[in-house]
Structure formats: C-alpha cells, structure tokens
Amino acid sequence: MIRYRWILLLIVVAGALTFSELAEQPVLTNADKVQRIADDLACPVCDGQSVAESDVPIAQAIRTEIARMVDEGLSDSAIRADLVSRFGESIDYTPQRSGLTGLIWALPILVGAIAITLLGTTFKKWQSKEKIKPFTFKNKRVTTMIFIMGIALVAWILIVQFTGSRGTGDAATGDIRSSTRTLLIEAQTASDENKVLIYDEVLTIQPSNVEALTYRGWTFWRTGDYEAARNDLSTAIEIDPAFPDARVFRASQLFSDAEYTKASADLVVLDSLDAPPIVWDLVSASKLRERIASALASEGDLVGALQLLDSGISRNNEDASLLAERGWLLANTFEVSLIDAAIESLNNALIYDPTHPNALAYRALVRSVLLEDQEGAALDIKKFQDLTDPPELLVQLLQNQGLLG
Questions:
Q1: Which of 244, 334, 367, 392 is the S-S candidate for 377 at Cβ 3.0 to 4.6 Å?
Q2: What is the pTM of this model?
Q3: Is the pLDDT of residue 401 over 50?
Q4: Domain ranges of the chain
C-alpha cells in the first residue's frame, strides 16, 4: 500500500509541475512580445548587451523593426530569421536547430525518450519478479524510478520551453489583433473624448499601432490639442511611412501650420501609395492639393506648386479640378510663353467636366483679360451662370473683373 502512495505522490508532483509550465499565460501585448524578442537578440555593435538593453541607434532601429513585424502578425521564428539574415547568426542568442547547435534542440527529446524507455524496462523487470521488496527510498527500485521520472519531467519541460516559436494564430498567449481591430471599429462611432480613450487602450496593447496613432492624432487636431496631434501623426509616419491616412492628415495639419512645402511633400508621397478610394475622395473633397498649390504659388514657389499639381494629375489625368488649378496658376504668371499651356490645361479640364465652375470662371478670365477674346469669355460666363449653385468666391472674382453684373 505504501508503494502506491509514493507512486501517486510522484504522479501528482509531476502533473503539477507540468501543468504549471503548460498552463495558459495571460495575454501578452505586442509590446511584451517585442520586449521578449529584443531580450533574445544581441546588439550587433555592443559588448554583452541585448537589443532590448542597448540605446545605440542600430538597436533602436532593430526594436522599431521588431515592433513593425510583430504588429503585422509575424511569428517569433520569422522575425528572428529576418533579422539573422540581415545581421548574421551572432545576433541570435537562441541556438539554431541545425548543425552542431541543433543538438541543443534534439537532446531534450532524446533524453525524454531514454527516460521513458528506462522507465518501461524497469517496470517490466519488476513485474517479472515474484517478490517485490518494500517500497522505501533505500530500495534501489524506488530510487531508479524517481530518477527516471525526474529525467522525464525535466526533458518534458525543456521540450515545452524550446521546441519552436508560437505563431499568432495558435499561441497560448492568443492573437490580440482581433481585439484591437474591434476597438478601432468601436472608436469610429464614439464621441471625440471616447475616441481618445479607445485609441489609448489600443496603444497600450500595441504601442506601434499606426491606425490608432493616426486617428488619435487627427482627433487631437480637431479638438484643439495641436501639439499632441503633431506628435502622434509624426510618430505614425515614422513607424509606417506608407500609411495613406497618416499622410493625408499630416498634410492637412502642415497646411494649417503654414508648412506648405512639407505638406506638399506628404501629398507627393501619397500619390505613390496604393491608397483606398476613400483617401482620394477626402483629398478631392477638401481641395487640399489645390489649396496647398495656391499657397505655394502665393509665396513665389510656382515650381513647387506645379510639381504638386502635376503629381496628382499623373495619378489621375482626368482630374478637372487639378487641371483647372494648374491652368489658373500658369495664367497668373502673366508670362506670354505660358498662356498656351494655361489654356490647354483649362480646355482639358472642361473636356473631362464641361460644367466645372473653376475651369469655366478661370478660362473666361484668361480669354477676357489676357487673350482679349470677349466672345469666348462670354460663352464661358453664360455656362457659368447656368450652374445651379456656383461657388461664391468665383462669383465675386468675376464680378470684380466686370464679367458678371
């Protein structure tokens, strides 16, 4: 009876240790995952410091890259492989599973297999004997069994610890992307105050979540916290220079700050991105590109203004609004050599949109003032007057030039 108690006790202890090792851990944030990976990587230019510990620029850059890849859902092994391919195997504190270092991964499994084999053999020998000695620690059989079970337990723990990296889809720590996505969707219908709180929560889980940074920054801007907005939008673009929403919002912020050249640069970058239609609708509806180009021209940077407009036209050569603005800026130089180019742009605008109010008003002015083509100007004015609700600023402009009564 005593021996069965000892066996039961050993089983309970082994089960408790195994359960404590395998029990599901609390959900790790992406920041936790970044820290864990950075702790396991050596700084390429430091002496005895990990990427997590070092503040040299290359370590900071690696941490930023790890954060980006973690947010994209890459597994630990994929991130390690990517960084090892860039910086060499010496960066990885965790041994590879090939060559001589592969023995480190194989040994726990080998030891476990040997332990199980010995345990089975021992029990078989014991059962083959008619008389079994009392179950005491002085008994060699008991000592052997405890030793073998200990080896098996240690091998199992090692296997659990080191056999492979967990992916986001099958991790004991879970996949947190669905939870942050739910929060971001919830923020879309929340009040401005609650939006900020929700974005704060997302960024607690994922400090490098570009969408949360971008939209928190835009919420700050709309509610008057301009410095916080600038910080969030700039940080978002530093993390992901190709996130279209951040480019649009920062361009708008820079325009309001009278940083026209920088605002133009953001829109030019945006033109090179595969942005969703809603982004282009936003730029078009707000006339942001036209306003920035006009501001650049008013400061004497006509070349920069035309480059900004041409960048948009290259993306969509049927954009009547950009063509009209381009023609107007060229006409306002009063350079004879540029008049033809101005008229060509205005003509093209009206080909793609025959009722575009800006194109009609600008071409009427160019025909009347610069080309002395009063008949052509009158035709444009007639079409302009037929518009249902022409912009008031254009009406005033034509009135000031005596083209409208």
A1: 367
A2: 0.59
A3: yes
A4: 2-162, 317-405
